[in-house]
Amino acid sequence: MKNAKNVQNELVIYPGMNWQPMQVSEYWSDVFVYLVKLQGRQPHVKGISGEVDHIPQKGLVKFEEEPIFYLKEFGGMRLALGKQLMSYCAQDVSATHEVFCVLLEKYFDRFPHPVTFAAMLEMGQCYLPLNQNWERYLQDSQETYENLQDEMKILLMQIANENCLYLHDDLYKDDPWLWDLDWSVEKFRLRKKYYDTLNDSPVIEKNKKDVKTTTEDEEGAGEEELAADLDEEELEEERKLEEVRAKLEKTLEFLPKVNQHMAGYPAWYRDLCPRQSLPEFRNSPSLISSQTRVTPKLLRMTWEGYPLHFIAKHGWGFLVPKDGDWVNNEHETDTSTLDDENNIDTEGTDEGSEDQKQFPVRSLRALLAAREKQQRNKRSSEINEDDQEVDDVTKSMKKKRSNAQSPLYNGRKPCIDVEIAGCWFYKLPHKDGGNANVGNPLAKDFLTKIEDGTLSSEGGLEAEKILEINKVISSWRNSSKRILSQMVVHFNKSDLPPKVTRDRSYDDEGMYGAILPRVITGRYSHQEGCGTNMAYCNKCFGNTLKMFFPSKPDRVGSELKAMVQAPPGYHFVGADVDSQELWIAAILGDSNFVGIHGCTALGWMTLQGNKKDATDMHSVTANTVGISRNHAKVINYARIYGAGKKFARHLLMQFNDSLSSNEAWEKAEGIFATTKGEIKYHLLPEGEKLCSLPEVQTLPEIEDEEWVSGEELNKISSWLSQKLQKDDSLDGANLPTEVMMASKDSKFTNILKSLTDKQAWFNGSESHMFNQLEAIANSPEPRTPVLGCRISRALEPQAVNNEFLTSRVNWVVQSSAVDYLHLLLVSTKWLFDLYKIDGRFSISIHDEVRYLVKSEDRYKAALALQIANLLTRCMFAYKLGMNDLPQSVAFFSAMDIDKVLRKEVEMDCVTPSNPHGLERGYNIPKGEALNIHELLERINRGEGATVSKENAQPKVGVK
């Protein structure tokens, strides 16, 4: 049982969560906080019906901290701890059964609609069929990955060898990347006897005599043996070789007993070379990879043209010269100024030490000046002689130099505790915010920055090739372990249904099997909420679903999804729900306004908006604040899920690193002012009386006596506070004592509580939608509007009061989307049974649903899904008080009928590991994408039937 004092420190804080410390009540911590593990749940639920309370610990199963589940080997016999293990397992099953009995009753109480439970059972039957192409895919992906990895390794070793040469003449001191590496060299050590020879000791004389005697004897023997075959010239050459060999053998006694590791090489290079004792020793920097700390420096990586630098306290960042005007002073830099900058006192900083390395400011300035001149010449050759365009280029260059002159670089402040001569150190932007450190600029989070040129390299073609290979292998490197760990079951021919074995495409020598998906129904991941807080929803979640990632032509193994292939005689039938959460949010807003579809601005854009005409919601948001549509789409969904202005600013700065914090905040405020609107507070009768006073009505901008904005309330409270300080009475208002006391206190929060009872949004395109979402989230028992599913007890208002509103708003949208999925699955199952369609549920990923259907029934199954979608949308409209449904949202825009799983039926999934694509490489044709009208035509023509081996008739040629 957790202590309430420790609960606050153990709460998980997710990105984008505006969390403030709150006083955790004993009731909340005792009732709602316990481990997910069985030993954490059992004390709370065993034998308890109704609300969960404390129960005595007597009689509970005692769980071992580290139960033993292994076999001992002794004398060639395997002895199992049978009694102990069986007893543990039996008690575990018994405890699980007791917990399940209690939780199941509570489940039906909180999720009363039978559709919820039926859909969860359906989602628990995921099925992903495979064939021999799965093993081929794994082999091709792994081989391609290893080949590219080896190529990258060779290039990295080559670059490391080239940079090692900078040790000569101390060239590294003038390099903006290599200057702070550890260039210390370990000298070659010999035994003391060697140094005696340098002082003409008797040892050397003895060695000379021994060498002379030995060589004379060996020469005599050699002459007798080689005289018959060797001429005089060859004999002389052989004598010299023997003499050298003899001298070398005599020097062996000078070597130390323990061989030195890479003596004569710099320390950073020695760290990349394995020790001689290791089997893979190749006397080369074979330990280098894209993960090693020194790699970005060896590649000479830059951020917007500035060299990267690593500080242990701040992670990776980049260095910007303090004097930004390096173009005009390229060859006229004052050396005295540089000397002063190079001798900055760094005592007490990260960079300060007795052997302080000096940063080569002059080299960096020269590099930046040369690059900017090159860019200026390139621009001048590309643009016309238009003065306006020339002025734009000039202004752009001046702005870049002004950024370097100012401590603020694109809104980011330098790290003031890092002092490097003549430079500011700025941290690289991290996806989790400015306080997080970047550990590796070659990680997957920076691949987009490499693609758009923000993160680049000055290391030449080899370095650019390394960055390209690192991008190509990133997906497989990050996902291969999860993919290879999937549970694959192989079927014998006797295990397959006759429909499969009788199909003409069945291969007797082929492999047929399936993945046993590791999915958990009734769970929700915060990652699907665009960074907003976690909320519990009945979604399908698990390790298997995580492995599917989009197919891209420059990612190894990204054709993974298409390797899930239907067996002979079957097809995949499914669709993506069009803007599911967006439509749900819009219809909630419409029902809260007039109760007509499209009566709000959001509802109208959802029904009639067109991406081509830029009238859809995402295009409108993009045009409002001047961002791309894709970025606007992410921000829009984040707002619908409950994210605020701070998270929107964070996203904007993440999308565009050149935006300052103030610029991003202005754009975020513009988005929220246009969409969410302005918040206003509803006045209590006492507040209405106050606003009816003539003196209050004369205040500027006080227009409404029922709803007031925060600014208006501030003016009223200010006037009231001043009035009461002069006179304790207030004629005509008859305010209660608590209101008078709050007004004297002049604290806005106190006056807000005493004069208002609720808040709402006004004058925004989505105001009605947010008002409805917050009304549901703040209700005493928050429930989804369609199936009536209740929120987790830990987030109900009685437990958290007004806290975690973002999580509860997120839950309304996400859980309503889950209700949509549950209704769709159950309706489809009912239609399959009703019309005897041979098909089963395969998988559901986000808003995508797929069924495995007999080929003859594929069009009927597609129509059943269309009807199920129509019934689901009608159910939503009916539950929200609407008795009609627009045709534009009644059906799926397209039904995908395919032999494999893929995002689009026409995708050929060409990747580095699948260069020939699916059609040429795997002989898999493109699928079909049919709208409702095309689907009805196919069914009316009776298409879809396939011919089995038994019924196949030979074709008759025409004479």
Automatic annotation (TrEMBL):
Domain of life according to the entry: Eukaryota
A single BP term in Gene Ontology: mitochondrial DNA replication
EC primary class: transferase
Boundaries of every DNA-directed DNA polymerase family A palm domain copy: 557-857
Subcellular location: Mitochondrion matrix, Mitochondrion nucleoid
Coiled coil segments of this chain: 131-165
Organism: Stichopus japonicus (Sea cucumber)
Compositional bias of kind Basic and acidic residues: 370-382
Protein family per UniProt: Belongs to the DNA polymerase type-A family.
Keywords from the UniProt entry: Coiled coil, DNA replication, DNA-binding, DNA-directed DNA polymerase, Magnesium, Mitochondrion, Mitochondrion nucleoid, Nucleotidyltransferase, Transferase
Chain ranges passing through the membrane: none
Record-given protein name: DNA polymerase subunit gamma-1
Region (Disordered): 208-235, 329-408
Transmembrane helix is among the record's keywords: no
Cofactor: Mg(2+)
